[in-house]
Amino acid sequence: GENVEQHPSTLSVQEGDSAVIKCTYSDSASNYFPWYKQELGKRPQLIIDIRSNVGEKKDQRIAVTLNKTAKHFSLHITETQPEDSAVYFCAASGPLSGYSTLTFGKGTMLLVSP
Amino acid sequence: EAQVTQNPRYLITVTGKKLTVTCSQNMNHEYMSWYRQDPGLGLRQIYYSMNVEVTDKGDVPEGYKVSRKEKRNFPLILESPSPNQTSLYFCASTRLAGGTDTQYFGPGTRLTVL
Q: N or C: which end of chain A has fewer CB within 10 A?
């Protein structure tokens, strides 16, 4: 099955800096790559996603890039703010015996200091 | 309001006492899934369902059962809970049968097995 590796496990930045979280996946057939943000005590919520037919997607201060050849994708957050502090999960989904399932990375705890 | 609900939100039980965690969605989604979240391990899929009466194992199915008799409901059953099933459980649903779309998570159920 799919295997998703996520780095780093923790990331501390100063407010206003940029943050980058990287993920690699193993199944070359995976075609959907979402990122979820989970604030303390809350449920994961989708913040951005990308499909394998595009290389980059941007939404205000967040962007995701995908390199299909190298099988890795990254989340970029610019001008970080304290409210960006949370755990971020990457995931990959692709066909498996005719169906698809979502495999998550182990998460990155982002701490943004004022 | 479109939502995924889970009950109970918190549960403390003892080893061997059967329990059921309910999950319901009001978005007419085909795909539903159960995850468990443990520190340092991220979100791991327990079972998923592509549609009514169609269920399949995820990465960590041992000790769990599910059923999908109606489209909106996807209960998680622990026939004989053990302490290693102490975890935070999330139900999720998505529009597309392949799971390759936004997954909406329920609020979570924190289970403690003594």
A: C
